[in-house]
Every structure is written in C-alpha cells, then in structure tokens.
Amino acid sequence: MKEREITIPSGGLRLEGRLYREGPRGAVLCHPHPLYGGSMDNNVVLAAVSAFQKDGWTTLRFNFRGVGRSEGTPGDGLHEVEDVEAALQILKENEGIDERETILVGYSFGAWVGLRALTGRPPLRGWVAIAPPVGIWDFPIGSGLEGVKLVVAGSQDPFCPPEALDSFFNKLSEPKQRAVIPGGDHFLWGREAELKAILESWLQEGVSVSQNRKALMK
After folding, report:
1. Which residues fall within 8 angstroms of residue 152, CB to CB, at 6 or more apart?
2. What is the pLDDT of residue 139?
3. Cis before 175? omega within 30
4. β pairing state of 58-62 and 13-20
5. DSSP notation for 101-125
6. For each successive 10 residues of the chain (218 residues), what is the average pLDDT?
7. What is the DSSP-derived secondary structure letter of residue 64?
8. Which end of the chain has a smaller Cβ tally under 10 Å, C or N?
9. What pLDDT was estimated at residue 144?
10. What is the enclosing helix (H) or strand (E) of 29?
C-alpha cells in the first residue's frame, strides 16, 4: 500500500512522516528510542502499520525530532510528547479524521511517550502499547484513561517483566485486552507476523465490538 511523504510542524521544527490515506479512521504510530536506533522504519512499527492498513485505516508514522530527516535533536522523551501531539493534530486538521476515530500506537519508548501525550487531552478512540518498558520507566497512567486499549508484550522481554506488566495493566480502565507473544523478547525480531495477527484480531473483535456497543447505547 502506497504511502506519501508529509511534513509535520512541531514546536518550530519539521518532522518527516509517511501517510497512507484510506478511510475515516486513523492510526498514529510512534517508534522506539531514537538514541538506540529507533525510527519509523522499525520492524515492529512496520508490522503495526501493515495491520492497520489491511483493516482499512488511515495510518501516519513519523520520525521523532532528530531522527532521519526530522529536524532538531532527540530530547529523551522531554519534547517528543509535542511531536506526538503534532502528528495527531495533522491527522485531524489536514485529513479530517476525528480524534474519536483515532488510535495511538506506541512501541517501547514510543508507548511511553505516546501514552503521556494522552494525559489531559480529548480522548481518542483508543491506544496500543507494544512492549511498554514498564520495568525501567514510570508509566503515570490513570485508571480513568478512556478508549479501547491493547497491551502486547513478549514473554521474555526483560524490560517488561510479568509482575510490572500486571501492575500496569491492572491500573487501566475497561475496555482493555492484553496479548503475550510466547518466547518473544523486547525487539520481536522474527515475530512480526504474530504481532500483526494479534493487531488484526483486536481491530476486528475488540475495536469493532466496542463501537457496536456504543451504537446500541445511543
């Protein structure tokens, strides 16, 4: 599926992104840590993009500041929250996709920054945290965070140990789902097909079911 290059203004900087325009639902994808080789071309990010595109979603992946052709320097999470907000704004203003029809997807560092960006803003349709490094970073996520939620992690991820993942997941409000990739580590090399299948199933069942319930309640 063909993506086109776009520029995302963020705090006086210009970020590079790739947009695939499909339907009225959108997904913004956040990559892993810039200082450890993370970029929007990461294997996990590309697997997630493929799953959403297959289900008919508009997708936007982008490079955080200081990565690839994005201007600026990495801020170790201090300013990347602005980059996430800028990407969400582009999807809303330029593509006309309502925030209630947008899902934020973050992998590792991208999950940490992405979920922090949701605090205090209008709720999205939902969000996905892939391999959130809850064992090494604090995830100050309140139990009242709205939207459908999916947390995916490998069973052998040293940065996302079972006890820490349980604590993180239990704090999340419903509706929520968790999926574990047996034997998967933090980087999920060679496990992309399994991750994609998990996301496709969730989009078909978890997200669609949640939307149908909302319609019945109106």
Report:
1. 128, 129, 130, 131, 178, 179, 180, 181, 195, 198, 199
2. 86
3. yes
4. antiparallel
5. GEEEEEETHHHHHHHHHTTTS---S
6. 93 97 96 96 98 97 98 91 97 94 97 91 93 92 78 97 94 94 98 98 82 42
7. P
8. C
9. 58
10. strand 26-30
Q: Give the per-residue pLDDT at 122.
A: 87
Superfamily (CATH H level) for 4-217: Alpha/Beta hydrolase fold, catalytic domain (3.40.50.1820)
* 58-62 and 26-30 strand pairing: parallel
- Which residue type is seen at 179? A
The Cα–Cα gap between 45 and 29 comes to 7
Q: How far apart are the first and last CA of the chain?
A: 35
Rounded CA gap, 195 and 175, in Å?
20
CA angle 14, 90, 208 (to 5 degrees): 140
Residues whose CB falls within 8 Å of the CB of residue 19, separated by 6 or more in sequence, listed in order: 3, 4, 5, 6, 58, 59, 60, 95
What are the extents of the domains in the chain? 4-217
